[in-house]
Amino acid sequence: MWVDLAHHSPPLAYPHEVSEPEVTRICVEALGVVVPLDVRGAELAAAVGRAWQDCRTTTPADQPAITVGLGDAVADVCGGTITEVMHRLSPTVTQRAIAARAGDLIMLHAAALADPATGATAVMVAASGTGKTTASTQLGARHAYLTDETAGITAEGRMVPYPKPLSILEGGPLKAQRAASNLGLTLTDRDCHLTAVLVLDRRPGHASAPTVTTLETVDAIAALAPQCSYLPSMERPLHRLADLLHRVGGARHVSYGEAVTLEPVLRELLGSSS
Amino acid sequence: MIRRRDLHDVYTEAGRTVVMIGEQIIVLSELATTILDAVPVGSSVGLDEIVDSVVAEFGPPPLPDDALTLTEQNVHDLVAHGVLEIETDPAHDDRSRDPREATAALQRAMATVLTQEPGLRWRMPEDLTPGSFLAAVRRQRIGAQLATGLDRLDLPGQMRARLRADSDDMRAACNELGHHLHRALDVLSETGVGALTFKGLALASQAWGDDGARGYGDLDMLVAPADLDRAVAALVADGWQYPSRYPLPGPGWGWRQFVRTSYEMPLVRGSTILDLHWHAVPARNTFPIFDDLWRRRADVAVLGRPVPTLSPYDALAHSASHSAKDHWRWLRGLADVHRLMSAPETWSRADRPLRHDQLLSVGIAARLFGVPDRAPAVVRKAFSLSGREYSSSLEAQVRPEHAAARSREAYMAILRSYPAMWRTRPGTTDLGRHVLRTALPARFLADETSPHAYVAAPRVLWHRGTEVAHRLATAIQ
Questions:
Q1: Quick one: B374 exposed, middle or buried, by C-beta within 10 A (0-12, 13-18, 19+)?
Q2: What pTM did the predictor assign?
Q3: ipTM of the complex
Q4: N or C: which end of chain A has fewer CB within 10 A?
């Protein structure tokens, strides 16, 4: 009988590794879901704690733990270096959270920034690698950072934050995971509500001010749907998206060159005075 | 009679509609919205009723068009996109029939598309069901190429609409892929890294004169081995994700071993995969090195912009190698070979003989689709050489999809890779690399950061050995 060696690797231990590293439980809140992380080893636990400090919570966990370890540890998330482990941890937590909220929240692949004074929030939808993190880091000092990955929105338009660590390129091929608070971004504890939906279209050659056009609802749904997680799990998902869009006066398609030029657009849409 | 498919959700506003089918989102025009409205949930209606609804909404079309023909065409489009179904929907009948007949018909249809003989047409055999033909097209992933010659094929209207719809979907996906390709090339160029794009869009443009003619898939780019670290760094900095379970570039033995024994790695951006190669083929000594390929490169248009790719002869050699690696199972690849070998300019810059496996691909393509006019003598020689492999390729082409999927099982994949490797007539160095690559895949090297082979290698071997032992023990139990 042939078996598949490529998957389901069994726990392995190199004979030199005999001592069991201590396990630290760190609970993080993502999209309203409390995910416990059981981290093996003090150094790794410190790194995880630092990167995820903006999501840490003392609320009891409602999910099974994700085990995290270095090297050959028996762990759900592991890697040869701390950077690798951190790189793999972020999508694992995100996946766990969005799976738990499937069918409940609208979860857009988007960055979300809020006016810290009013809670008015702009969700900036974009595909992977097209500028969400850059927009978050460049605009998040004046606007409160809610997420750079998945914007959770209730049927009533309330934002469910996920201020996960941001992936920052610091020289190596893997991006480092940095807490928003360590990058000087603003955070907020206040309730935030959806005020604007932007479909970002970054064009490196776009020299002038951003071009903003309002999309018809049907086109906006077509643009947003591919960036929604677990949309088919919802009851009448297109109507849910349409309700959301009507609530904020439609989605805006924004062509821009540099993230910093989005600042006035954001200020106007959020009605901010800052 | 026509009825609605099971649509997950439908939303209409201002006369236009968006529908969700599974995970797919489709926007309908005002005309298509009217047609959909004319087909209520849970009931079937005749075409005449739909035509009445359309005429009531929009009035009769200007002559010489007629409402029936236009409406029927739009209904076929909605059927092709899975919004409506006709009770004898061709894509859902008869898929379980023996695929030989349909595959043979597809070969003849493709030969008609590829022929240089003017006026030749192909009519679908009457005893062949449209469903089995479409199933063969999809199994062979050759719909986009077939659609380039629709004007030479006499097909039922529904099937024509289905092929056109599939082709349109693929073209839309190719657009996004093309933008990613341009950006990646720009990023590498700004970093001072020369990169050739090959397969996919570039090959479609080069072989078919149309960058959307091969459907969509991954992006493939080739850089010089010496530029690999810089290329990876530049692409990652631009937003491509480094894959999990791959060693990180750097001084570690794991990375060095990976670069020594492998030839490509995937980078991911959303749903797009960029296969970054530092050698064009696994048996690197059997194919020209990057510097030679770069010197001979050609430019082809992708989304209207020139991109560097392999010379036509190198592209033929590569496509022919690729077909041989897959045991000539895919008509898609063989059609590429035929297009390239039919172009006189391909041969005008031939600078070396084709390898044996490449010759076999050329011969099989000639047997399947015809010997091109003014083909050089080598094509006829390849034709003569390829009799035995041609017979086995016909068997492979009708093999069901699940048999191919099973080959993903690691042991089987490894075993299957050896005959393909052997067919390239590799030297001992390439064979050694292949053994090492299959014995120690990237995931075993991923966690090895030590720069010293004497530290890292035993650990990797230990892990691999332990896993093999565990798997065998599990299998025996």
A1: exposed
A2: 0.67
A3: 0.84
A4: N
